[in-house]
């Protein structure tokens, strides 16, 4: 299978009478070139979903496949899939204060061999940051930092892109620009992209919307135009 596939995934925290089902029988397929949104209240399991999809957390049961590769294998193999196949975009985008934009984007390539990386400077140009490749995060606006964070997530040519609250710090116009960028990159590179969001403006950019409540994922209203 291509894209991202979750089959009957269950993740529990705690034991005895204090068990929380963070993910309760979650099944989901995100195809290549597709962007889905996941909405839901705090504590619903959205972070858990990203952690499992990204191979950071191993579920108690069920299967997770990234580009056909089962993440159930050994930690070493999972680490490789994380490094080569998964891109993360964080809310605060975790840029390192001392590094220039170009060095931030290059960073994921320094943790181990990546088969077919993109050129960091070309990628920065593609996300509209070519002219600020030598700036450090404090010299960039919120929207610009988010673009650098996106470029950093794309440099390994991931097949799955996991995005956590990409617009939390942005005004509406910047939010739309960032979403357009994410959707364009997803289509152009055939990624399977999952966006966790509280922002209803984000939904119309996405192909499908899912709602998460108490660890259960259900198809939400399709708001894409
Ligand atoms: P969301 O991202 O939607 O806010 P989370 O995935 O963070 O939800 O959490 C889902 C549920 O799992 C919540 O009830 C949360 O309290 C619980 N949970 C998350 N991480 C842990 C943990 N490390 N230990 C115990 N419970 C956890
Ligand atoms: P955006 O267009 O993303 O909303 P702003 O309106 O916040 O950006 O900022 C406008 C311009 O000012 C941007 O091009 C950005 O590079 C620059 N800028 C913002 N903050 C700083 C800073 N602390 N140091 C240098 N330049 C900055």
UniProtKB/TrEMBL annotation:
Q: Which PROSITE patterns match?
A: ABC_TRANSPORTER_1 (PS00211), ABC_TRANSPORTER_2 (PS50893)
Q: Where is the ABC transporter domain?
A: 4-225
Q: Which InterPro entries match?
A: AAA+_ATPase (IPR003593), ABC_transporter-like_ATP-bd (IPR003439), ABC_transporter-like_CS (IPR017871), ABC_transpr_LolD-like (IPR015854), MacB-like_ATP-bd (IPR017911), P-loop_NTPase (IPR027417)
Give GO MF terms, alphabetically: ATP binding
Q: Which domain of life is it from?
A: Bacteria
Keyword hit for Metal-binding: no
Q: Does the keyword Nucleotide-binding apply?
A: yes
UniProt keyword annotations, A-Z: ATP-binding, Nucleotide-binding, Transport
User: What protein name applies here?
Assistant: ABC transport system ATP-binding protein
Q: Which organism is it from?
A: Saccharothrix longispora
């Amino acid at each position: 299978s291509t894209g991202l596939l979750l089959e009957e995934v269950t993740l529990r925290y705690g034991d005895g009478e204090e068990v929380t089902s963070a993910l309760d029988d979650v099944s989901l397929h995100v195809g290549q070139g597709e962007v889905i949104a996941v909405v839901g209240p705090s504590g619903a399991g959205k972070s858990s979903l990203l952690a499992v999809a990204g191979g950071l957390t191993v579920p108690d049961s069920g299967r997770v496949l990234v580009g056909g590769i089962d993440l159930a294998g050994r930690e070493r193999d999972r680490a490789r899939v994380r490094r080569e196949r998964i891109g993360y975009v964080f809310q605060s985008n975790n840029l390192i204060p001392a590094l220039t934009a170009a060095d931030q984007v290059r960073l994921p390539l320094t943790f181990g061999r990546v088969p077919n990386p993109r050129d960091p400077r070309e990628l920065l140009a593609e996300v509209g940051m070519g002219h600020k490749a030598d700036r450090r995060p404090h010299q960039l606006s919120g929207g610009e930092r988010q673009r650098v964070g996106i470029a950093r997530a794309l440099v390994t040519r991931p097949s799955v892109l996991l995005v956590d609250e990409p617009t939390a710090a942005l005004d509406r116009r910047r939010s739309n620009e960032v979403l357009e960028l994410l959707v364009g990159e997803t289509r152009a590179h055939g990624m399977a992209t999952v966006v966790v969001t509280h922002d209803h403006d984000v939904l119309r950019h996405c192909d499908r919307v899912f709602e998460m409540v108490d660890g259960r994922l259900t198809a939400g209203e399709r708001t894409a135009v």
